[in-house]
Amino acid sequence: MATDKTNLQLVVNGILNENPIFRLVLSMCPAVGISTTVMNGFMLGTAVLFVQVCSSCTISLFKNVIHPRIRIPTYTLTIATWVTVIDMVLAAYLPEAYAKMGIFIKLIVAFAIITMRLEMFASKESVNASFWDGIGMGLGFMLGMVALGFVRELLGMGTLLGYDVLGFKPLLFFVLPLAGFFCVGLMMAFFNYIEIVYKRAKRA
Amino acid sequence: MNNHTLRRILFCIVLVLALPLLAQAQELIAGKSFGKAKNEIVVTFATAVDRAVVENPANYRVYEEQDPDIRLALESVVLAEDGKTATLTFTEPLNAKLPHVVSVSGLAEGGGAATFKVMKPYIGYLFSILVGALLINNFVFTKYLGLCVFFGTSKRKDTAKGMGITFTLVMVVSAIMSWFFYQFILKPYGLNFLQIVVFIGLVSLTVQAVDTVLRKVNPALFNAFGVYLVLVIANCVIIAVPLILADNEYNFLESFMLALGAGGGFLLALYLMSSVRERMELANIPTTFKGVPIAFIVAGQFALAFLGFSGLTLF
Predict the structure, then answer these.
(1) How many domains does chain B have?
(2) Do A29 and B147 touch (CB under 8 A)?
(3) Is B285 an 8 Å CB contact of chain A?
(4) CB contact, 8 Å: A26 with chain B?
């Protein structure tokens, strides 16, 4: 079965219709835990993008030789291999960012979103389609993280990417790690609201 | 195994754990412990001692048991009025989790050094790991791990209980296996970079094994809990615990306690959340907040409440 979507449609699908954070509600741990600044969100998003694209392509390449009964362990080990790669690269070249991210880089291995995409998409589609789907999902995750980081950094510290934008700190509460729960909840409600308004406008 | 044998085995285990406590008795030193402040050690002597000797910091050598080369700098020593209790103040806070060796020269007869070890009672320490993982560092509410499964399976109390129990079981088994692999294979052969691959492989193996065994041995239990087994793999906590064990170099009992605390903490979080969500179904919630958004807000409030445990110290 081949998908009939174009590459662009696959990417847009990952960013909007099936956004991992706000639509599928998967991979919430980092979204709550470390989306305190735009930079953090961007860094982890890049790591996830890399792992997603590489694992999607790998599984798609080998989809015909993987026995269906052992497919889940195979997926897990493939992801674990790519996570080890990005883990060692970040530890070597960006030690500061790596220290900030802490255990979350290693935990990419347990992100439901990556396993789900391998099971639902890469194990059935061509390498090319899997690549673009991986890009879309990774970008969707990254943009979600950046959006969260944007709101939390702006409201919590009054800064963006470390630069002082507002000059004061509107809601210091948002810097606390646990404010991630409130932030995700409120932003989801906000997107729901936009959707409702949009549909109402369309009908009228 | 009857009840009597079980009790005897339990007694033996407790005795072995308590041995270090009994073996502490020494003639000159009546008692020693970590002080109230983080940079203090309090020593009680059996008899009144020479104030000049005791209050001179140069007479002390203090180090952590595992690093004998690194001396800890003493700021001052104060002997209490009765001449028996000395408080050692250090320039930097001590890591009270590790045993410290203190040696005082010029005190014992003939000018030899009196050496003794200061450590927390071991059972208390184990218990503090358990309570730490359960409440203070609850994996869901203060470490923000395992959230996908947390929000997915906390809609009904029955589901929450089933998921929590299955998870605790798999957690303990896989943590113990990971500990063995890490201590006896990865560490001796310098294969630390394989941590992630090996640990996640072990988790998948455990899940598969529990699945097969449960299906054959107890089909009724399998029907109740089987569906949650697959979800366990997608839970960050299950891979986070082995990584934490490896980072902190926990021993076997400590690893067991951490795994038990992590599983129990997850069960607790799921149960609390499902109780609230069952009630929320009847409540009148704005359309935009229905479903997941309100669940996040509630989880945030639980997290705020769990923040209150952060100052809790038991031992």
Answers:
(1) 2
(2) yes
(3) no
(4) yes
